[in-house]
TrEMBL record:
Source taxonomy: Eukaryota, Viridiplantae, Streptophyta, Embryophyta, Tracheophyta
GO BP terms: malate metabolic process; tricarboxylic acid cycle
Matching CDD domains: MDH_cytoplasmic_cytosolic (cd01336)
Residues in Lactate/malate dehydrogenase N-terminal domain copies: 6-153
Keyword Plastid: no
Active-site residues, Swiss-Prot/TrEMBL: H188 (proton acceptor)
Keywords attached to this entry: NAD, Oxidoreductase, Tricarboxylic acid cycle
Catalytic activity: (S)-malate + NAD(+) = oxaloacetate + NADH + H(+)
NCBIfam families in UniProt: MalateDH-SF1, MDH_euk_cyt, PRK05442.1
InterPro entries in alphabetical order: L-lactate/malate_DH, Lactate/malate_DH_C, Lactate/malate_DH_N, Lactate_DH/Glyco_Ohase_4_C, Malate_DH_AS, Malate_DH_NAD-dep_euk, Malate_DH_type2, NAD(P)-bd_dom_sf
Name used for this protein in its record: Malate dehydrogenase
An example molecular function term from Gene Ontology annotations: L-malate dehydrogenase (NAD+) activity
Family label: Belongs to the LDH/MDH superfamily. MDH type 2 family.
C-alpha cells in the first residue's frame, strides 16, 4: 500500500539553497524513493513572485512522489501540519552591518517562526535549522517553542562533516564512501573543530585509522582543519555565491539519517541541544557525533578527547555562549 505523504516545510524556498533543495526532496532524496511528499514553501512577500516561479517549475518537473505544493508568504499556512521543517530562510549579513544587527533580525524571525511551528506543525515535527547563525537560530527556536521537545530541534553541521570526509578522500585519492566517523564539534562557524581522531577508512585489509593512512599529523592539525573551517568562504570566493547544492544535499543527508537511522558502526555530526556530554555546557546547540535509530538521535559517548581537542571543543563552546548572550541581548 502507498505510504501517506509527509509534509516538508522549506523556509527561504525562493533562495538559492531552496532552489537546490526542493527538487531533491521531491525526488525522494531526503525521505526515500517510496515516500510521497507534500512540499510547503515559505518565503517573504518580496520573494513571493520568485516563489511562485519555483512552484511552476516543480509542477513542470512532474515528480511522481510530489503530491502537492503549498507556496506561501504566510507563516501559519506554511507551518500548518508539517512533519519536517527545514529552516533555510534568514537575514543575510550585508556589507557594513554589525553582527548585532544581523542577530537582531534573525532572532526576531526565529522567535516568530518558533511560535508558528509550535502552534501549527504536526505533533513530533522534526526541525532542522540551516540559516546562519544556525546553532543560535536553532536555540532561539527551541526557547520560543517550549512544547516542541528539545530533541526535535537541530541545526546543520552535516555540510562541514561531509566537507571533512571529502578532504580526506581527496588527500588519499580514495572513495569518499570509504571514509567514516569524522566529527564536527561545536559551532557552524570558523571555530568548529573538525576531528579525525576516531575516523577510519575501509581498506581491503579492514578498517584503518585515518591518522595511520594519512601519515602526516602536521597536515591533519593545520591545513586540513583550516580548509574545512574556511570552505564556505572559499566557495563564496570561487562562485561569488555561497554554497547551495552541497548545503541542500547535506540537509537531505541530515534528515534522512535522522529519520531512517545511521548505518551500524558509523556516526554523523548534528547540531543538537547539549546535555553536558563531553563537558560541553548544557543549554547550547552544539555539534556532536550522533547515531540515529527509530527517528531519535543519541550522542556517541565515551570517545577519548586529547588535550589539543579539549581546547578546540572549549573554544567553539565559548563562541556559542557569546552568541547566545548576544541573541538574548537582542531580545530585550
Ligand atoms: N548550516 C550550513 O551549513 C549552511 C550552509 C550554507 C548556507 N547557510 C545559510 O543558509 C541561509 C540561506 O542561504 P541561501 O544561500 O539560500 O540564501 P538566499 O539569500 O539565497 O535565500 C534566503 C531566502 O530566505 C528568505 N527569507 C528571508 N527572511 C525570511 C523569513 N522571515 N521567512 C522566510 N524566508 C525568509 C529570503 O527571501 C531568501 O529567499 C543563509 O543564512 C546561509 O548563511 C548555512
Amino acid at each position: 500500500m502507498a505510504k501517506d505523504p509527509v509534509r516538508v516545510l522549506v523556509t527561504g524556498a525562493a533562495g538559492q539553497i531552496g532552489y537546490a533543495l526542493v527538487p531533491m526532496i521531491a525526488r525522494g532524496i531526503m525521505l526515500g524513493p517510496d515516500q510521497p511528499v507534500i512540499l510547503h514553501m515559505l518565503d517573504i512577500p518580496p520573494a513571493g513572485e520568485a516563489l511562485n516561479g519555483v512552484k511552476m517549475e516543480l509542477v513542470d518537473a512532474a515528480f511522481p512522489l510530489l503530491k502537492g505544493v503549498v507556496a506561501t508568504t504566510d507563516v501559519v499556512e506554511g507551518c500548518s501540519g508539517v512533519n519536517i521543517a527545514v529552516m533555510v530562510g534568514g537575514f543575510p549579513r550585508k556589507e557594513g552591518m554589525e553582527r548585532k544587527d544581523v542577530m537582531t533580525k534573525n532572532v526576531s524571525i526565529y522567535k516568530s517562526q518558533a511560535s508558528a511551528l509550535e502552534n501549527h506543525a504536526a505533533p513530533n515535527c522534526k526541525v532542522l535549522v540551516v540559516a546562519n547563525p544556525a546553532n543560535t537560530n536553532a536555540l532561539i527556536l527551541k526557547e520560543y517553542a517550549p512544547s516542541i521537545p528539545a530533541k526535535n530541534i537541530t541545526c546543520l553541521t552535516r555540510l562541514d562533516h561531509n566537507r571533512a570526509l571529502g578532504q580526506i578522500s581527496e588527500r588519499l585519492s580514495i572513495q569518499v564512501s570509504d571514509v567514516k566517523n569524522v566529527i564536527i564539534w561545536g559551532n557552524h562557524s570558523s571555530t568548529q573543530y573538525p576531528d579525525v581522531n576516531h575516523a577510519t577508512i575501509k581498506t581491503p585489509s579492514g578498517e584503518k585509522p585515518v591518522r595511520e593512512l594519512v601519515q602526516d599529523d602536521k597536515w591533519l592539525t593545520s591545513e586540513f582543519i583550516k580548509t574545512v573551517q574556511q570552505r564556505g568562504a572559499a566557495i563564496i570566493k570561487a562562485r561569488k555565491l555561497s554554497s547551495a547544492l552541497s548545503a541542500a544535499s547535506s540537509a537531505c543527508d541530515h534528515i534522512r539519517d535522522w529519520v531512517h537511522g545511521t548505518p551500524e558502526g558509523s556516526w554523523v555530526s548534528m547540531g543538537v541541544y547539549s546535555d553536558g556530554s563531553y563537558d560541553v555546557p548544557p543549554g547550547l546547540i552544539y555539534s556532536f557525533p550522533v547515531t540515529c535509530r527509530d527517528g531519535e538521535w543519541s550522542i556517541v559517548q565515551g570517545l577519548s578527547i586529547d588535550e589539543y581537542s579539549r581546547k578546540k571543543l572549549d573554544l567553539t563552546a565559548e563562541e556559542l555562549s557569546e552568541e547566545k548572550a548576544l541573541a538574548y541581548s537582542c531580545l530585550s
